């Protein structure tokens, strides 16, 4: 794969739920190490698109390329291998409540990566350390703050060695004082070159982290460009209007 070739690319992705056409033909390219941020009004299809990108939701039509090859989603082995490469972080963490932080990661390594318990434990410790939680492995989700839970979820995703991370509003369920610790982990992943696409309402991430902003509305990408192009001084864009509204709600500086 050449440097400029996208690691993940989709073309003409459509998805309906019953008679509701949610995605109406979305094209997207994620260059290696690139960071795209999805914004736009509620119900526009951001979460559905993210879930189609790793086939957690099966698109009705369209083509997915990974590392330059078409992913045949009808072939379960190929689909399974693809999905291992594309990690997902959810707003509500999706941790197993009956397992400690460490065991949440260990179980994924044993089941998905077929590691033995000792190997899994060693790797899980490394990942907890990466997100600043090496002293919290023995705690259950109920004993962790929202920010800590989200960092465990990120550690679990990283333990799978994903080539791409999909993040769906990773800070939306957090109290404002806990947002910073998760944002810091996301920034450090970006610095390490992780390829990411993230739906977020966090203006600091939209403005400062995105290589490109994708504004989704009514199942289509209605606008795309760099933060400077879409949010620069004096521009009049859908993204600018949306961020101005967010700013009014959150008080976060744009
Ligand atoms: N499993 C489902 N079954 C039926 N309808 C669904 C399903 N998932 C999503 N939808 C509908 O698809 C539309 C798009 O939802 P989606 O969650 O993708 O939007 P979103 O842009 O992520 O919104 P938000 O900003 O509120 O998270 C909504 O109208 C939603 O009700
Ligand atoms: Mg959503």
Give the SSE map.
Layout: E1 6-17, E2 20-31, E3 35-39, H1 46-53, E4 61-66, E5 69-70, H2 76-85, E6 86-89, H3 101-112, H4 117-130, H5 146-159, E7 164-168, H6 176-191, E8 195-199, H7 203-208, E9 212-217, E10 220-225, H8 227-231, H9 238-250
Helix pairs in contact: 3-4, 3-5, 4-5, 5-6
The structure holds adenosine-5'-triphosphate and magnesium ion.
Textual characterization of the structure:
The protein is an alpha/beta fold. It has a single domain, classed as Rossmann fold. It has 9 helices and 10 strands. The chain has helices at 46-53, 76-85, 101-112, 117-130, 146-159, 176-191, 203-208, 227-231, 238-250, and strands at residues 6-17, 20-31, 35-39, 61-66, 69-70, 86-89, 164-168, 195-199, 212-217, 220-225. The strands form 2 sheets. It has a 6-stranded mixed β-sheet with strand order 6-7-8-3-9-10, sandwiched between helices. A 4-stranded antiparallel β-sheet has the order 2-1-4-5, with helices on one face. The model has no long low-confidence stretch (mean pLDDT 93). It binds adenosine-5'-triphosphate and magnesium ion (MG). Residues 17, 22, 42-48 line the site of adenosine-5'-triphosphate.
Q: CATH homologous superfamily - what is it?
A: P-loop containing nucleotide triphosphate hydrolases
What is the makeup of the main sheet? 6 strands, mixed
Query: What's the CATH architecture name?
Result: 3-Layer(aba) Sandwich
Which molecules other than protein and nucleic acid are bound? adenosine-5'-triphosphate, magnesium ion
Distance between the termini: 37 Å
Low-confidence stretches: none
Number of strands: 10
The number of distinct structural domains comes to: 1
Overall pLDDT confidence: 93
- Using only C-alpha atoms, the radius of gyration works out to 18 Å
Tell me what portion of residues adopts beta-strand conformation. 15-25%
Enumerate how many helices there are, as a single number: 9
Helix amount? 25-40%
Shape: globular
Instruction: Please give the order of strands in the largest beta sheet.
Output: 6-7-8-3-9-10
Helix-strand pattern, N to C?
EEEHEEHEHHHEHEHEEHH
CATH fold-type name = Rossmann fold
Secondary-structure-derived class: alpha/beta
CATH class value: Alpha Beta
């Amino acid at each position: 794969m050449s440097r400029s070739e996208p690691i993940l690319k989709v073309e003409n992705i459509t998805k309906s739920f019953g008679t509701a056409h949610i995605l109406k033909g979305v094209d997207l390219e994620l260059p290696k190490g690139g960071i795209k941020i999805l914004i736009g009004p509620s119900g526009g299809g951001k979460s559905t698109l993210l879930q189609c990108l790793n086939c957690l939701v099966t698109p009705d039509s369209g083509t997915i390329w990974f590392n330059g090859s078409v992913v045949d989603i009808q072939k379960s082995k190929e689909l399974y291998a693809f999905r291992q490469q594309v990690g997902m972080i959810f707003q509500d963490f999706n941790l197993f409540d009956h397992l400690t932080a460490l065991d949440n990661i260990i179980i994924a390594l044993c089941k998905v990566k077929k590691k033995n318990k000792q190997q899994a434990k060693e790797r899980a410790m490394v990942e907890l350390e990466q997100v600043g939680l090496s002293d919290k492995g023995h705690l259950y989700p109920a004993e962790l703050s929202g920010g800590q839970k989200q960092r465990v979820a990120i550690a679990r995703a990283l333990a799978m060695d994903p080539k791409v991370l999909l993040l769906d509003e990773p800070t939306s369920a957090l109290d404002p004082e806990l947002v910073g610790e998760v944002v810091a982990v996301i920034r450090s992943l970006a610095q390490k070159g992780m390829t990411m696409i993230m739906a977020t309402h966090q203006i600091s991430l939209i403005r400062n982290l995105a290589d490109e902003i994708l504004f989704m509305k009514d199942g289509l990408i209605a606008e795309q460009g760099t933060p400077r192009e879409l949010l620069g001084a004096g521009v009049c864009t859908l993204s600018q209007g949306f961020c101005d509204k967010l700013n009014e709600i959150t008080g976060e500086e744009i």
